[in-house]
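Translate sequence into structure tokens.
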Amino acid sequence: MRRRAALVLLSLAVFCAAMAPALRWYAFPRLARIPPNQYQVTVLEAKPATLLDYTTLKARKVDKITIVQTLKGDAEAAKRVERATGRDVVVWDSLSYVAGPDGAMVSKIPERYVFDAHTQEPVHAAGETVDGDPVRREGIEFKWPFLTEKRDYQYFDAQTRTAAPIHYRGTRVFGGLEVYYFEQTVPWTEVPMPKAMPVKGITPEVLAQTGLTRWYTTRRMFWVDPVTGAPVNGEEIHREELRGARALFGQDTVTVFAGHVKMREDSVTEVVDLVRADRLKVLLLVSYLPWSLAGLALLLLALALRVEARSRTRRRGVTPD
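Result follows.
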């Protein structure tokens, strides 16, 4: 009877020992995935800011600019891409909507972003666009990979349509979480005019005929939870200019928008709460359960050896201590 118990304990120890690495290396890549139908709204503000007044053709100081960033997963489109590529993907339709102090639209830039549901690497497929223009992304955007590393990453910039390094700058504490801080500076670069303009009748084609060009620079900052790869906070020191503007504005360069953009407090709280819940699920797969199973396997093995030793002692007719 004791020997049978020892065999049962040994079998359970082997099972736990096998499950520990299986959870980390087999289950984790298959279960830790971005849901295809995710929906998220983040509100950012620049207070104060500089904004071009198209009625007076002059830049003016305003109390606040509001930017509403919407991410919406298209599950049906993801299924079509999966059938074509054989990969588990997510298709995000995003919209960055900028509103002035009166609530009127300043600009809106839609994007379609296709990426691997686990690694967050871009997956090139039809419909990958920024403001209606086809693009071929390199690098991450919006989110870092699960188990983010302390290193630089390539980060895609929607304005320039190019990727550049975003640099790891150290570990910080934000919202009670230990996070990695990343920073990227995009130098002054000529970028396309937005297709949606704040004044009716003004289009990118009309502006191009005047010789105007749009230039942009930003310093981008992210505080990233290393477990889920989700940014818990983001800021940008952002500037846009129109150049070659003397014929229309009376000067060569006119500021279109300038300000320090920060996530609104309620958006930060919502994101931190969501990340706290998601990081527990990831940690269960990569740390808590594997280590618990490994510890349990050692305990069961020790019990099995003890039971077997006691069984052999009894068979030899020696009373154990």
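Note: The radius of gyration is 27 Å.
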